[in-house]
Each structure stands twice: as structure tokens, then as C-alpha cells.
């Protein structure tokens, strides 16, 4: 039976207080994040990581026991997906988790995949929506690790799945449960805020399809809830640096909800597992802001995590890339077709090749 390794990509996070600064440095050294020459990028990364470490250690990660739960939560998803795929009896699947900015990094994971003697590989980001700052960046470091180790098995790369039915069903189910609780608490028509991680406007202006894909995902999930005349909007969180970011910001939407005297149900639809942006930024910081603004209610929806519909959705994406038991090589979105409008020139499928 063929041995197929599925590599789940995610951002990563510090696993100790001492790891916070090097994690932040790695993040800001990424040329997809700070688009500047190497020396300038090094100086910026050194300055920002030094400045932000004290804040993150004293506030964000301190609230989580001085580490990120992202790896643990990603591995729980990997375990669920491995069980689902191997139950199909099509091939021998093993799921690996590769982080972009902290361990386990791409070269470590590739060594594990090679030592498992994988015949073929499927690269699957845990980001449903594609961005050059996330998925493309992870593809790039994986390619560099492959060159370094001389490991080049047949590889299928999934760039995005913003319309995935399993993801939409799991998201809608989680939203509906919290929405119904808000109504039981006396909020007749709470507003659902789809909060995604933001990006500088310049990234989108250069042809990155992330914002468009986030909007498309939100629209599909909103329909999937089955809530008639649902009051919802999309917003963006986690701004860093002085550049102008895409909007509206989550803070702006909370202020608008306060002005409308609306309770809010907030769902982070660009994240698929809990980590600092959901457990601290939304659950603690935005909740405190909502209270200060006088919102009548504030509710956070859990991410899809290991929801059975989401895991089956991921399994369907993997199986779609198999033909006669072998992977279909190349970079493709779910469905195998270009889904982004033509003006999104940084679409992974539209590019001639993924840059390393």
C-alpha cells in the first residue's frame, strides 16, 4: 500500500517564555511579511521583536501559561485527519505538522517525512484562505528544505479551500449554537462579526486574493447558518506596524455595534484552531473593549478545530488530489480550478511558479 504523507502547515507559536522573542524575530524576518531587502528586514525584525517581546510575554502569552497552544491544537487536528483518512483504506496515510516560525520547522518535518519513507506528499495549509503571507510563505520554506535535503517525492500542494463544504458546515454549526445562546439571553437579533487576521492594504493592492477569499468564505458560512435575515459583517484584527491595513477593523465594528446597541457574536473564520488571536485578542481584549463600549452582549464562537465536518472536509480535499492511488502533482485550489478573479495576480495557481 502506498505511503502518503500529509503535511499540515500552520503559523507556529512560542513553546516557552524564552521562545517568544526568536519566534517574533522569525516572523518579521519573512520577506512575505516585511517586504524589504535582507539587511533592512533584519533591522526591522530585531527592533520589533525586541520591543514586542515584553508586551507579549507580560500580556498575551502570560494569559496562556507563557506559550502558544497552536501546536497542540494543530496536532489534535492531525490525529483526527489521520484517523479519518486511514479509515478509507485507500493508502497508508501519516499526518505531519509543519510550523512556519517556530518548531517543528519545515526542515525538521521533512526529515521526519523522509525517514518515514513516504512515497508521496500532500501539502495542506490549515489556512482556508490563501495569502502570500501565509500559505505561499510556507510553500517557499518547504521547497528550500527539499533542495537542502535532496528530497523530491511526488508532491501535491493545496493552496486554498475557502468554499469547502465541511469547513462551512462546521463553522455554521458553531455559530448557530452561540447565536441561539445569545437569543436565549434576550438578544433578539445579535450581529455576527466574521473577524479575520488583517493585512496591510499594500499586500492586497499587489494582487493578494486573501481579502476576497475571506469575504467569500464569510458569505458561504452566513448562508449555511440558515438564519433568516442574518445581520453580519466582516472585519479584520491583529494590526501590527504603521502601515494602513484592510478594514474595517474589528475595533471599528465593535464601536458600530455599540452605536447600534447590538450584541455581537464574533467568529474568527480565517483561523481553524484556538491560539493567541482567539483566546486572548478576542476572548479577553475585545471582550474588555465591548464591555467598555457598553455592548449589550459579547459572545465568542469557537474555531472549527476537530469538528467532524471540518475534518471530513480536509479528508475530501486530500482524496481529491489522488488519482489511481497516486497524488496529482502541482499547486491547486480545492476543485482544481482557478477560483480567484483575474486581477488577483498573486493567486498561487495563476503564478508560473511558487517563489522560494
Layout of SSEs?
Blueprint: E1 3-10, H1 20-29, H2 38-60, H3 70-86, E2 92-99, H4 106-115, E3 120-125, H5 135-149, E4 155-158, H6 165-184, E5 191-197, H7 201-205, H8 210-224, E6 232-237, H9 250-259, E7 264-267, H10 276-293, E8 298-300, H11 308-320, E9 322-323, E10 326-327, E11 330-332
Parallel strand pairs: 1-2, 1-3, 3-4, 4-11, 5-6, 5-7, 7-8
Antiparallel strand pairs: 9-10
Describe this structure in words.
Among the domains are: 48 residues, no CATH class; 136 residues, Rossmann fold (3-Layer(aba) Sandwich), CATH 3.40.50.1400. Helices cover 44% and strands 15% of the residues. The protein has 11 helices and 11 strands. The chain has a 5-stranded parallel beta sheet with strand order 2-1-3-4-11, with helices on both faces. A 4-stranded parallel beta sheet has the order 6-5-7-8, with helices on both faces. Helix 5 links the parallel strand 3 and strand 4. The longest helix is centred in the first third of the chain and has 23 residues. It starts with a strand and ends in a 24-residue tail after the last strand.
Amino acid at each position: 500500500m502506498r505511503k502518503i504523507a500529509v503535511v499540515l502547515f500552520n503559523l507556529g507559536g512560542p513553546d516557552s517564555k524564552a521562545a517568544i522573542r526568536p519566534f517574533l524575530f522569525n516572523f518579521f524576518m519573512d520577506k512575505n511579511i516585511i517586504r524589504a531587502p535582507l539587511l533592512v528586514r533584519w533591522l526591522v525584525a530585531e527592533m520589533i521583536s525586541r520591543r514586542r517581546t515584553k508586551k507579549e510575554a507580560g500580556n498575551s502569552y502570560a494569559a496562556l501559561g507563557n506559550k502558544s497552544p497552536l501546536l497542540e491544537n494543530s496536532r489534535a487536528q492531525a490525529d483526527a485527519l489521520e484517523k479519518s483518512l486511514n479509515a478509507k483504506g485507500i493508502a497508508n496515510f501519516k499526518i505531519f505538522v509543519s510550523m512556519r516560525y517556530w518548531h517543528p520547522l519545515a526542515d525538521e518535518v521533512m526529515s521526519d517525512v523522509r525517514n518515514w519513507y513516504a512515497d508521496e506528499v500532500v501539502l495542506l495549509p490549515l489556512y482556508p484562505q490563501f495569502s502570500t503571507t501565509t500559505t505561499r510563505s510556507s510553500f517557499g520554506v518547504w521547497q528550500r528544505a527539499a533542495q537542502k535535503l535532496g528530497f523530491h517525492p511526488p508532491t501535491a500542494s493545496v493552496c486554498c479551500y475557502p468554499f469547502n463544504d465541511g469547513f462551512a458546515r462546521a463553522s455554521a454549526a458553531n455559530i448557530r449554537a452561540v447565536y441561539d445562546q445569545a437569543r436565549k439571553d434576550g438578544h433578539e437579533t445579535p450581529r455576527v462579526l466574521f473577524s479575520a487576521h488583517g493585512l496591510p492594504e499594500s499586500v492586497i493592492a499587489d494582487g493578494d486574493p486573501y481579502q476576497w477569499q475571506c469575504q467569500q468564505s464569510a458569505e458561504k458560512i452566513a448562508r449555511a447558518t440558515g438564519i433568516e435575515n442574518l445581520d453580519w459583517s466582516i472585519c479584520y484584527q491583529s494590526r501590527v506596524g504603521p502601515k494602513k491595513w484592510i478594514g474595517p477593523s474589528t475595533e471599528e465594528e465593535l464601536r458600530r455595534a455599540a452605536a447600534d446597541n447590538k450584541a455581537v457574536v464574533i467568529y474568527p473564520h480565517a483561523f481553524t484552531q484556538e491560539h493567541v488571536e482567539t483566546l486572548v485578542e478576542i476572548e479577553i481584549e475585545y471582550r474588555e473593549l465591548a464591555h467598555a463600549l457598553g455592548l449589550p452582549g459579547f459572545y465568542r464562537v469557537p474555531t472549527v478545530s476537530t469538528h467532524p465536518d471540518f475534518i471530513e472536509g480536509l479528508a475530501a480535499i486530500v482524496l481529491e488530489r489522488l488519482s489511481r492511488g497516486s497524488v496529482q502533482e502541482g499547486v491547486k485550489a480545492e476543485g482544481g480550478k482557478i477560483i480567484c478573479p483575474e486581477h488577483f495576480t498573486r493567486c498561487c495557481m495563476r503564478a508560473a511558479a511558487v517563489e522560494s
